[in-house]
Design goal:
The chain has about 50 residues and is of the alpha+beta class. The protein is built from two helices and three strands. Strands 1-3-2 form a three-stranded antiparallel beta sheet.
Length: about 50
């Protein structure tokens, strides 16, 4: 299973939703401690699942 989401556009394609919805989803997953933001930012922001 892939454990890295390269950016919200990739997430939007996987989830079949708009980029705005993808951003809201990612923010919720971050708040719940399911995802963690990788170093870097801007257009190259990526996220990964928390181990556990």
């Amino acid at each position: 299973m892939r454990q890295i989401i390269d950016n919200r556009t990739i997430y939007a394609k996987l989830a079949k939703c708009s980029p705005d919805t993808a951003l809201r989803d990612i923010k919720e997953l971050l708040a719940r401690g399911i995802l963690i933001k990788n170093e870097g930012g801007g257009r190259s922001t990526s996220y990964r699942l928390i181990d556990g």
